[in-house]
Write a structure and sequence with these properties.
Blueprint (H helix, E strand, L loop, with lengths): L3 E4 L2 E3 L5 E7 L8 E7 L6 E7 L4 E3 L7 E6 L4 E6 L8 E9 L2 E4 L3 E5 L2
Parallel strand pairs: 2-11
Antiparallel strand pairs: 1-3, 3-8, 4-5, 4-9, 5-6, 7-8, 9-10, 9-11
Amino acid sequence: QVQLVESGGGLVQPGGSLRLSCAASRNIASIYRMGWYRQAPGKQRESVAAITTGDRTNYADSVKGRFTISRDNAKNTVYLQMNSLKPEDTAVYYCGATTDGRVYWGQGTQVTVTS
């Protein structure tokens, strides 16, 4: 099992930046895949960015070049640096850990991009 706690969300103007953090309750070095997902009102949850144990990363087309995912195994934390934010990035952002044959989720953190 793994518990995940997200932080770092908030209200930001278009063009601004935020850094989300996801703190895990156990060593993430052995967790195959850590990812960030988001869900906007009335929409399905979608994958935003992911990083594997080999530090391979992938991103949704909508965030490529603007978002960066990284992991600090010593701190058991995964980050999502979000730059050049747009109103359409507004959503609840969730951290997900793929391990033990399932996905574990955090409680989510709200990101609102508005002028």
